Amino acid sequence: MVNDTLNRPMRDLRISVTDRCSFRCVYCMPREIYDNHEYLSRTDILTYGEIDRLARIAVELGVVKVRLTGGEPLLRRQVGTLVGSLSGIAGIDDLAMTTNALQLSKMAESLSDAGLDRVTISLDAIDDDRFRAMIDTDVSVSVVLDAIEDAVAAGLGPIKINAVVRKGWNEDQILPLAEYFRQTNHILRFIEYMDVGTTNQWKLDEVVTSAQIAQIVGSRWAIEPVDASYRGEVATRMRYSDGEGEIGFISSVSQPFCGSCTRLRLSAEGSLYTCLFAGTGTDLRGPMRAGATDADLTQIFIDVWNNRDDRYSELRGGVALPNPKVEMSYIGG
Ligand code: SAM
Ligand code: SF4
Ligand code: SF4
User: Fold this and answer.
1) Domain 12-331 sits in which CATH superfamily?
2) 80 confidence band (pLDDT: 50, 70, 90)
3) Residue pLDDT, tens place only, 122-159
4) How many angstroms does the Cα of residue 64 sit away from the middle of ligand 3?
């Protein structure tokens, strides 16, 4: 096991398999920028064999949780093949994917058969107009809601639902989302709008804090805290006092959790990032394609993690940031 300078072990690996996406969420891939963006080419991005090799090395160093993300991971051709190979790595306790679910209904069963343990689905609104405004794409909420049920039927549940709340855009969806997912086994998690990247033009006054969200939910149904289930759990958990389910809050802005951040991120083109707010990563693709041995690559992982001192969210405002910062759609959320 390797620890960083703040004594945090490397436990989670997030693998971005593509920088492309089928949505244009206004807080992540604003259409005016991403419709004319130069995306990575097929030769830029890691092959499944390369990803598998790096994941095995990370697991040797202590990683037990792997999450496929993007961009939109379901856009990567035959992503089930990658799931199949990663699920064969002894030592991964939890193999998950974060997806916008647009293509999930038709893929859920094969992904589950390939060894995917569960999916987290992003959904920021229940009302169609609000949803379409957030994703800036002409898709109906029913597509995502159906995909949630199909994922459960395929054995990928219980499902976590990620809802980013941005003031002026969807705070009126907090109660409809809570109402829809109460009394289901799905766990709705409200995410504070974060200052990741630069293209979203983030402003602090567009953040709705977890405390404000909890107050809105609590004004309708009594809620009470639940203990964290493991060290490093990023969501603060609450349950409905009437026993009708649980909700979570990811408070990166108002209550940062850097102290327990054990996440390493691998970009689609093979760079390691130790923080969502980094400017640059450490290239693995170059050395790998130039013939680096597993021992060489292992040493790069160790050096990167040993040198890690990131705690941007805790220092927010008190530290100079790289400019530009890496984008969420590139590094993987
Ligand atoms: N496309 C997939 C999806 O949306 O589920 C996976 C990648 S997406 C970058 C991963 C997560 O990051 C999503 O749940 C999304 O809502 C979240 N996200 C993106 N930009 C964000 C921001 N500025 N603040 C908070 N969460 C953000
Ligand atoms: Fe795409 Fe996910 Fe970003 Fe939305 S949040 S634009 S679905 S990568
Ligand atoms: Fe982890 Fe960086 Fe986020 Fe802190 S700011 S929780 S170190 S990714």
Assistant:
1) Aldolase class I (3.20.20.70)
2) very high
3) 999 999 999 999 999 999 999 999 999 999 999 999 99
4) 18
Distance 142 CA to ligand 2 centre (A): 18
Look at the block and give the residue holding tokens 């040198």. Answer: 307
Name which of 61-65, 161-165, 190-194, 233-237 the model is least confident about. 233-237
Where do the domains of the chain lie? Answer: 12-331
195-234 pLDDT per residue, tens: 999 899 899 999 999 999 999 999 999 999 998 776 667 8
- Predicted confidence at residue 232, as pLDDT, reads 65
Based on DSSP, count helices (H) and strands (E) in the chain, helices before strands: 12, 12
Question: Is the CA virtual torsion 100, 103, 108, 114 positive or negative?
Answer: negative
Tell me the C-alpha to C-alpha distance, in Å, between residue 221 and each of 124, 209, 217, 247. 20, 18, 6, 12
Burial letters 38-75, b for 16+ CB under 10 A, else e: eebeeeebbebebbbbbbbbbbebbbbbbbbbbbbbbb
For atom 4 of ligand 2, which residue has the closest CA? 25
Ligand 2: residue of 25, 67, 76, 139 to mutate (most ligand atoms within 8 A of CB) is: 25
Query: Is any atom of ligand 1 closer than 6 Å to the C-beta of 28?
Result: yes
Q: Which ligand is nearest to the CA of 24?
A: 2
